[in-house]
Amino acid sequence: MDRIAGEADRIAGVTDRLAGEADRTGVVTDRIAGMTDKLGEVADRIAEIVVIFAAIPFVWYFLSKEGMYVFNVDRL
Fold first, then answer.
1. Under a CB-based contact definition with an 8 Å cutoff, are residues 61 and 67 in contact?
2. What is residue 1's DSSP assignment?
3. What superkingdom does the record give (predicted)?
4. 5-17 burial, b if ≥16 CB within 10 A, otherwise e?
5. Position 75 pLDDT exceeds 80
6. Residues 6+ apart with CB under 8 A from 63
7. What percent of the chain has a predicted confidence (pLDDT) above 90?
């Protein structure tokens, strides 16, 4: 019976270690999720900047003489 109790204690110890590893894995997963959220925010900001810079040539053309002629704008 002592041998069975010893094996049960060893299995319980292994189970506890596995539970600790699972907790650590959860912490790492949460950190990765946080980093992914931050990267998403950075990507959104970069996209906003790209849209602004992409619009500059169109605004420049619209404000030019040819653009005003094409869009039938006499004065702004």
1. yes
2. -
3. Bacteria
4. eeeeeeeeeeeee
5. no
6. 76
7. 51
